[in-house]
Amino acid sequence: MSTTPVVPGVRACAGPGDRARTIATVAPWTGISCATGDAADSAGCTETFTYFDVVELSVAADTGYSFATWSGCTPVVGTPTHCTVAMTADTTVSATFTANTYTLQVSVPAHGTITGTGISCATGGDATSADCRETVTFDQQYTYSVAADTGYSFAAWGGDCVTNGDGTCTITADTTPTVSATFTANTYTLQVSVPAHGTITGTGI
Predict the structure, then answer these.
(1) Interatomic CA distance for residues 100 and 160, integer angstroms
(2) How far apart are CA 59 and CA 122, in angstroms?
(3) Using one digit for the tens of pLDDT, what is the confidence trace for 171-205?
């Protein structure tokens, strides 16, 4: 008799018959259901099979991740998320997953510059250039800052960026995020000295 521990993310179950164990999650003889956070020695991650049983396993990636490779198990041709292993000894099967990546799009600002990791997107820039686009990884945080052009002041962040107390903003990559910023023109006070013996006129004066 052999025991097959399977790492989180790998799912399999035992089928009827002496020589086969196949995926069939609706059947009462399902043996393996091992997910992220489970203990390696839990009932869902360990199952006993008979010598030379052929066990078929499959994987389902968590949100934000994609299946990468099997270890200790032969991928099924045409269905790489399934694999089979013939039980001739105690066997450990594992699966690896990689975090998804997305393209961060920064809207070209009018009257300022947005900067951050891999980003330096300024007035008059090209939205499709590397300065205004960056590859980000699922569940990672990225922080951005702004600098206003002469005569302008930063007003607000937009897109998926959450404003921080220090004037920067942060995104957590879980989709294809966007970042934008708005700026307003500065205003100034014109003081007209009261003339002696005449009148000064103009817009608003």
Answers:
(1) 18
(2) 44
(3) 999 889 999 999 999 999 999 999 999 999 999 88
Does the pLDDT of residue 22 top 90, yes or no?
Answer: no
Residue 100: name the closest of 196, 174, 205, 200 by CA: 174
Give whole-number Cα distances, 141 to 54, 99, 107, 137, 155, in Å: 43, 13, 19, 9, 23
In whole numbers, what is the pLDDT of the chain averaged over residues? 85
pTM attached to this predicted model: 0.74
Distance, in Å, from the CA atom of 83 to the CA atom of 90, rounded to the nearest integer, reads 17
Asked if residues 132 and 116 have their Cβ atoms less than 8 Å apart, the reply is: no
H-state helical runs in 27-140: none
Q: Tokens 């699966």 label which residue?
A: 95
